[in-house]
Amino acid sequence: MHIPDSFIPLDQAAVYWIIAILFIARAVKWAKKGINENMLPLFGVLAAGIFVLQTINIAANLLIPVPMLTGVSWHVVGALLTAIIFGSPWAAVLLITMVLAVQSLFGDGGITVMGANILNMGILGGFLGYYSFIGLSKLKLNRDIAMFAGAWLSMILPAIALAFELWFAGTFPLKQGVLLMGIFQGIAGLGEGLITVIVFNAIIKARPDIVDENILKKESTAKVAVVGIIALMGLVIAAPFIASSNPDGLQQTAHIVVKDELNKMVSPITPLFPNYSIPGMGNVGKVAAILIGFCAILVISFGLTKLIKKG
Amino acid sequence: MHISLTELERETYKKSPIHGIDGRIKIILTLAVTVYVVSLSRMDTLNFSKLAILEAYLLILMLFSKLEISHIAARFAIALPFGLGIAILQPFLKQPFIHDFTIIYMMPMGIEITREGMLYGAILFAKFMVCISSLILLSSTTPMSELVSSSRRLGLPREMALLFTMMVRYLFVFWNMLGRIRTAQKTRCFEIWNKKVPRKWILEQIGFTISSLFIRSYEQGERTYQSMLCRGYNVDAQVYVGKKKLKVPDIFLLAGTFVIIAAVQLIIF
Lengths: 311, 269
Hints:
In chain A, 70% of the residues lie in helices and 2% in strands. Chain A has a two-stranded antiparallel ribbon. Chain A has twelve helices and two strands.
């Protein structure tokens, strides 16, 4: 999942670098303050450990024994694991950045595109995985299941982001990219989830003191909701570009069975956004229509929740 | 093909004219070549000549650096899969920035091979190879500790320099630790491909290996931090990086690289 040099043009790579640098600077600031003290030396040593454990390649067909996966392997990324242990996604940003920098010396990921790699694996993997775990735990889901789901999301969502980045770069078509990356990282995510749960449970038995156990109390529901909304908005914006233009099963059946009648039918209501789009605006109209719909659902949901609470 | 961390570091301690060049110069060289190569246009056939000259230049430098051919081959083999995988698919894809495609072969199921796709794939792969070559040259001729100190001299923030210094110092400790864990597992006949044991059990063993490594790294980090505190470390402490003057060969190599890049750009158009 490490993008090599020359796969993303310089101008786009520079944008990813700027985003990455902003997050790294914030992560360093967080590590200097630490939970109780300056944690920079600890992170330096731990990054070495994470780098080494990322060299443990695991065969993908150990998880799903199908011939298609023969010769495919994956390694643990550990973004969610470090974020949970230190009780902050900034830990994941910092550690993954350092690991990626050293990996690039091995040709595993490029220099100009390191910003994009940090954005995918460290920032998106760390933040989305961590807040998914927190959100699911707050919903009283079993800790191991929440962790498994968080780890899986920390692999699949960056993979989708990577497919978009390669599409923006003109290097790979979007739908095929999302499909291929989704399949392989989806499977790797299963492994990441299982290993994260096994490793976390082993750590909590051996050294319960190093795990920040107050993370559920520390992280407010509002913060989790904000991250969730941002992530969903990202998916909402992405949806029109990866959605199929073919009709769904019901529409297709209706089209085949009652074609003539269907053509004669006139809807009594003119939809505000026919086919989830604003006519004449192309994909921008689709994104705008879906975003308006998404915001409307959010407002209605919050309104109803408030009403129910008052009642 | 496989290359270990210790094998990589062993190459960096060889004695050669390139190994002796200042780390800052090699970092700038790598960045200059990579940025130039990435900035080349995506569909210009002249790029092949430009990239061939740059690749030849890097291979000559590798030759002077007395690197083992098997080492270079192994480094390329490790880096290749993802880049090659994406480049090799290009002839079958419709690149969004290309408007007219010339179909040169029709395959079953409507799959088309296009001339433009082949050209783009070939240029992409050639660019990727030159970038990888420059990285291999840098990382095979410069010890990691020198890379960190040279980066610090080039302006890497002191916090990042501290983090990388600590990381590089303990990388080999944990690498050897993993080697010992693997040896211990082998002596107990642990085999990841063993089909006679349940997959769940194998995954658990891998998980335990990772947790053991994680806890050991964490504890080493704690011990290191405590000992640093004992020696007066505080939040304002800096990693000491001595001054180092550039020598004539350093300036010669740097100037030579820029001259070659400029010549490639100006002569081939």
